[in-house]
Amino acid sequence: MVERKKTAVGGGAVAGGGRRQGVRTWALRVGTSIMLWTMMMQLSSMPHVWQPRLTCFGGRGRDPNSTNYSILESKYPLESSKTSPPALIPRRVYKSNGYLLVSCNGGLNQMRAAICDMVTIARYLNLTLVVPELDKRSFWADPSDFGDIFNVRHFINSLRDEVKIVKSLPNKLDSKVTSGLFSMPPVSWSRETYYLNQVLPLIRKHKVLHFDKTDARLANNDLPTELQMLRCRVNYEALRFTPQIQALGEKIISVLRKNGFFVVLHLRYEMDMLAFSGCTHGCSDAEINELIKMRYAYPWWKEKEIDSESKRLEGLCPLTPEEMTLVLQALGIPRDTQIYIASGEIYGGEGRLAALKSVFPKIVRKEMILSSYELGPFQNHSTQMAALDYLVSIASDIFIPSYDGNMARVVEGHRRYNGFLKTILLHRKLLVELLDLYHEEKLSWDQFRNAVIEVHKNRIGLPTLRKAIPGRPKEEDYFYANPQECLSSPKTSKYQMDML
Asked: What Cα–Cα distance (Å) separates residue 155 from each residue in 237, 239, 348?
């Protein structure tokens, strides 16, 4: 009995000791966890420990010798709520001379170029820029705001070392708004001295200046290199599309890549383009009358009486889908190539694409890749739809515009910046002549094909100098099509020699 009692007591002591040891172990683990949590919180308050500085343009960021990178991986990374935001670059401290409000006009890429110009002007004049307003009165009547297309937070933060950008005017300036802002359009194609000598005094006087139009307002050539570099930084670094647009663009590109090589054809055979340019080649009498009626309906389209045929012979009209079919064949694009059509609704509908589809059956559009559910939020928002086409155009193996409008030129420049990716710049004036000779049976197919290849062998987006015309800046080569000050020496793309 005694032994059993001792054993029982001993067992209880062991059990009690075990419980005390368990408590000590538990307390140690809790203490360790609290210590680790405290360290994590302290480290998270120092973002430079976890994240590199937000890259800037030029010597402070992008490697000027690096030309080959993925647009989706390095140029436009999608934001995620699961990751910490990058560390903010230091803010530039300066005394602001006033506020600049801008109302951009035109389509997506006309406004994009204007935003780059306006940021540069604000930096040059030491102004505070209000996030730009976008055009809602154009043909498309798109109600999209800046934040519906571009990532506002990234736009503001990525440029904070250059210029202060705010979402709205401060309350103390409400009286300026209620009493009427001082508004004016800047003089087109002006040099930086115009803004310094004529615009800055107005801002100092009124404290707030509103540019009610912004398209093509800085000259192309002979601007200080630092201003040109800033225009590029805004265009290629700061103007990032929203995460929603980025995600859908990534999906389109992923689907196309899985199916192999793909060409983007920017086919500007759209009703508004034909009406605006007065180009009616290939249209029926009823269609011609409809286009003329539209041209007269918009008072800011100043040119009314237009000779379509003479414009076409001068190479000033977009090529028709039928003409583009022959040109693509002559350029050596294989029949089984995926051809992504980047455009709005083609004038004449699917019937107008019949010839193109008969020769190139793998015609693809975003509406064929994305579901109606995915595209639903973008419907009736032409600028957001154009943003999707823009992303696909930048990522394509070859980009071919049928007309050198704003999108074609801005995409051309972006592809040069991305490593001189292959962009076939059609010589429409010579092509129209060759097409007519071929249709009149004055050229055989082999003669036509050889001539097309010869004309375009040096028009594939390789390095070249912008054309400068002293005293006539509007006629110079467009800066955003060839931002030569921002481009490094190219590495030959694997696609540069595949065709032509």
From this structure: 9, 6, 39
User: Beta-carbon neighbour count of residue 293 at 10 Å?
Assistant: 10
Under the banding of pLDDT at 50, 70 and 90, the label for residue 451 is: very high
| Residues forming a β-bridge with 150 | 241
Cα 90 to Cα 68: distance, rounded to the nearest angstrom: 29
Which residue in 100, 178, 176 sits closest to 133, CA to CA? 100
Residue 447's identity, in one-letter code, is Q
Task: Name the residue with tokens 């307390």.
Answer: 27
Token representation of residue 452: 């097309």
Is residue 96 within 8 A of residue 128, CB to CB? The reply is: yes
pLDDT at site 11: 43
Nearest to 395 by CA among 369, 368, 422: 422
Are the beta carbons of 203 and 127 closer than 8 angstroms? yes
Distance, in Å, from the CA atom of 121 to the CA atom of 196, rounded to the nearest integer, reads 9
241 phi and psi angles, rounded to 5 deg = -70, 165
Backbone angles phi, psi at 430, to 5 degrees: -75, -35
Q: Give, for 14, the enclosing helix (H) or strand (E).
A: helix 2-44
134: amino acid identity, one letter: L
SS3 content of the chain, % helix, strand, coil (to 5): 50, 10, 40
Q: Pick from 250, 480, 263, 490: which is nearest to 374 by CA?
A: 250
Q: pLDDT tens, 175-226? A: 777 678 899 999 999 999 999 999 999 999 999 999 999 988 899 998 999 9
What is the token pair recorded at 433?
A: 């002549």
Structure letter (DSSP) for residue 262: E
pTM for the predicted model, two decimal places: 0.80
Check whether 405 has a pLDDT greater than 80.
yes
Q: CA end-to-end span of the chain, whole Å?
A: 105
Compute how many other C-beta atoms are within 10 angstroms of the C-beta atom of residue 286.
8
By percentage, how much of the chain surpasses pLDDT 90? 67
Tallying the residues shown for the chain, one arrives at: 500
Task: Name the phi and psi angles at 356, rounded to 5.
Answer: -65, -45
Q: Are strands 208-211 and 182-184 parallel, antiparallel or unpaired?
A: parallel
Helices (H), 404-485: 406-417, 428-439, 445-456
In 309-447, DSSP assigns E strands to: 338-341, 363-364, 398-401
Q: Are 218 and 474 in contact, with CB atoms under 8 Å apart?
A: no
Query: Cβ-count burial of 358 within 10 angstroms (0-12 exposed, 13-18 middle, 19+ buried)?
Result: exposed
pLDDT, residue 136, reads 80
| pLDDT over threshold 60, residue 13 | no
The confidence band for 29, taking pLDDT boundaries of 50, 70 and 90, is low
Alpha-carbon span 385 to 375, nearest angstrom? 9
- How far lies 245's CA from each of 242, 251, 368, in Å? 5, 10, 17
Chain position carrying tokens 């420990």? 49
Residue 467: other Cβ atoms inside 10 A: 12
